[in-house]
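We now fix the convention by which a protein and its fold are recorded. The integers have meaning only within a learned vocabulary of local backbone shapes. A complete example follows; check for yourself that the lines match position by position.
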Amino acid sequence: MLSSDISFQNISKAIDLISKASKLHQNIEDVFSVCTFFAYVLVFMNFVNMVLLNTTEFSNIELAIRAPMYIILFSWIALHFMKVTLTASKLIDTCNDWRLLQMDVVKNCANMKPKRSEEFRYLLLFIKCSKLDLVFTGLGMFQLNRSLLLTMGSAVLSYSVLAVTF
């Protein structure tokens, strides 16, 4: 609708939808940020615990019973953390798609050659107010994206090598 008719009503509707989406994202972020951070910490703690269990001898029957429980717990937490991270990265992809759509609106409006300076001001208002940068974080310490999984994998591998060598 904005690519064909740039008017104050259309821009106000678009900005209202963007602000509602941003508020909804912030509410979800407030709820899940703490849980995400603790899941991140639990992945590392359970992995280090599994590595340490594997370096000890299984002469004690209690350790032999505890090891499969830790493996199951680690697998469950790591799988769900990876699932949440990949889902959160889809939000980043959506924001990137929004930037492309925003550029299309500007390109289409530039081709229409605004008849009035008022339409040009509306276009500038749209560009200024339609920024959409939504990411999920873990208490603001890290962003959930695909590169986080690579970083976690390399850190887990490094810690396991250190634990095994000592």
The first helix runs from residue 8 to 55. The mean pLDDT is 80. The radius of gyration is 24 Å.
